[in-house]
Design goal:
With 515 residues, this protein is α/β, with parallel strands linked by helices. It folds into three domains: 263 residues, Ribonuclease Z/Hydroxyacylglutathione hydrolase-like (Metallo-beta-lactamase, Chain A, 4-Layer Sandwich), CATH 3.60.15; 97 residues, 3-Layer(aba) Sandwich (Oxidized Rhodanese, domain 1); 114 residues, 3-Layer(aba) Sandwich (Oxidized Rhodanese, domain 1). 26% of the residues lie in helices and 22% in strands. The protein is built from 16 helices and 28 strands. The protein has a seven-stranded mixed β-sheet, covered by helices on one side. A six-stranded mixed β-sheet has the order 10-11-12-13-14-15. Strand 25, helix 15 and strand 26 form a beta-alpha-beta unit. Helix 3 packs across helix 5 and helix 9 crosses helix 10. The chain starts with 20 loop residues before the first strand and ends with a strand. The N terminus and C terminus are likely disordered.
Length: 515
């Protein structure tokens, strides 16, 4: 199961041992120089949103109360509360680049605080922004933030060098956005559809790293925009911070190499970008509706739900795969809230379709907010008491078939025409696949159904690594008219662990491309 945080976005409450939001606060008082205790001028707060592998930041000057927020998530109440509690005024919202993996909260923060929204030079939006030029300095008081242009992940990408005092001999930290991650660098291939070649972007990224980031002192703290699990890189560390020196020693992409070698190594083995990335990137440029993360989610009747579905809507069931398999509304898509819910929902649900939520009691607003974080705002309501609904209307109920690895081994021998689909990412598939499997990563499943030559009338088995994503894929295929679909309990791990045959190479088709 792919773990993801739970709970309300800023509460810090623990539910089933997991947190939706973790925060790390650098102490403001400490042995900063020599052995003397002294007040720090810089207030620094790092927020970690595990469900989207997102880091965001509140930086302020304790001597003046002036502050900025960097790369905020869309539900912004936490930044507002922390600024209020520490006597800070949020004056600017700075985006290190136009994000594709989440919908940023710049508009929400600007509305709440009157702050200016700022991007690096060249960013294009249909709302007013301040363009920050390379070398420009933002003076918060004693604390100074220096802008460095670091294109490569996107053309307008910037990094922010933080100085506790303008005349300090060395900077205190650098916020690297998606240019430099801990253990990795930002992928340069996401703008291929916009006419920016991965080769050109990779070369820009190489120069940005060598000339703007690695020229910082080794002791400079590094704070990126994403952590482990993000699709914006290949092998991000689970750590929350590092230093320039540590990254120089341990990050594979920063090892001594030529520009050509760098481009080759960072473009190789990138996973298929999640399907919603283009939509979210476009939405981040728009003057869209604002999110009210405290608004209740409308309760719908079964008749209303059936009418919405008949008009093109979709039922998104956030219960865990085992509960979903025991009974659900016909045609529902299962994306468990205890996984990377928003990201995977964005892979299989069209953002333009009305969405009806089914969740465990009390989690419908959590689901709505998490979808809003990637820009999916067409949640029309939720259907409560799903178990009672299914009891009252058994004609609208169906079960999902989940089989063991041994069952599949037998089925392969006995069932001619069986279709097997591996929906793991390309890097995972390098471990091997079940013989004869179609390799269709979840992000490309919908687009790849036709191009892979899949037959909706043929029996089909879907698998992932451990069984969470396979429920998403199998339910998506059933929703699209596949008659007989099962998924493997325990996924590829169970298959390989049982000593069953593994194929090291297989042809797979993604959106018409054979890879």
């Amino acid at each position: 199961m792919d773990p993801e945080g739970r709970g309300t976005p800023w509460s810090g409450r623990e539910l089933d041992g997991k947190k939706d939001m973790q925060t790390v606060v650098v102490p403001q008082v400490g042995a900063h120089q020599g052995d003397e205790e002294q007040e720090w001028a810089v207030y620094f707060h790092q927020y970690e949103l595990g469900c989207l592998s997102l880091f965001s930041y509140l930086i302020g000057d304790t001597t003046t109360g002036r502050a900025i927020v960097v790369d905020p998530q869309r539900d912004v109440s936490g930044y507002l509360a922390d600024a209020r509690d520490h006597g800070l005024r949020i004056e600017q919202v700075i985006e290190t680049h136009v994000h594709a993996d989440f919908l940023s909260g710049h508009l929400e923060l600007a509305k709440a605080t009157g702050a200016t929204i700022a991007y690096g030079a060249g960013a294009q939006t249909d709302f007013p922004i301040l363009e920050l030029g390379h070398g420009e300095r933002i003076v918060l008081g004693e604390v100074v933030v220096e802008i460095r242009a670091t294109p490569g992940h996107t053309p307008e990408s910037i990094s922010l060098v933080v100085w506790e005092h303008a005349d300090d001999p060395e900077p205190w930290a650098v916020l690297t956005g998606d240019a430099l991650f801990l253990g990795d660098v930002g992928r340069p291939d996401l703008l291929a559809s916009a006419g920016r070649s991965p080769d050109d972007m990779g070369r820009s990224l190489y120069r940005s790293l060598q000339e703007q980031i690695l020229t910082l002192p080794d002791g400079t703290r590094v704070y990126p925009a994403h952590g482990a699990g993000s699709a914006c890189g290949k092998q991000l560390s689970t750590a929350a911070e590092s230093t320039i020196g540590e990254q120089r020693r341990t990050n594979y992409a920063l090892a001594p190499m030529s520009e050509d070698e760098f481009v080759a190594v960072v473009t190789e083995g990138q996973s298929l970008a999640p399907a919603y990335f283009g939509y979210a990137a476009d939405a981040n440029r728009r003057a869209r509706d604002l999110l009210d993360d405290e608004a209740p989610t409308e309760t719908l009747t079964l008749d209303q739900v059936l009418s919405i579905v008949a008009e093109g809507g979709v039922v998104l069931d956030g219960r865990n795969p085992e509960v979903f398999a025991s009974g659900h509304l016909v045609g529902s898509i299962n994306v468990g809230l205890d996984g990377r819910f928003a990201e995977y929902a964005g892979d299989v649900v069209d953002p333009g379709r009305p969405i009806v939520l089914v969740t465990e009691p009390g989690r419908e607003t959590e689901a709505r907010v998490r979808l809003a974080r990637i820009g999916f705002d067409k949640v029309v309501g939720h259907l409560p008491d799903i178990e009672q609904v299914l009891i009252a209307r058994p004609d609208l109920s169906e079960r999902a078939r989940r089989i063991s690895a041994d069952d599949l081994a037998t089925w392969r021998d006995d069932q001619p025409g069986l279709q097997i689909i591996d929906i793991r990412n390309a890097g995972e598939q390098e471990q091997g696949v079940i013989p004869g499997a179609h390799r269709l990563p979840l992000a490309g499943l919908a687009a790849g159904i036709a191009t892979a030559g899949l037959d909706p009338g043929a029996p089909t088995v879907v698998y992932c690594a451990g069984g969470y994503r396979s429920s998403i894929g199998a339910s998506t295929l059933r929703q699209r008219g596949f008659a007989t679909v099962a998924d493997i309990l325990g996924g590829f791990q169970a298959w390989a662990g049982a000593g069953l045959p593994v194929e090291s190479k297989a042809t797979h088709v993604v959106a018409g491309r054979t890879i």
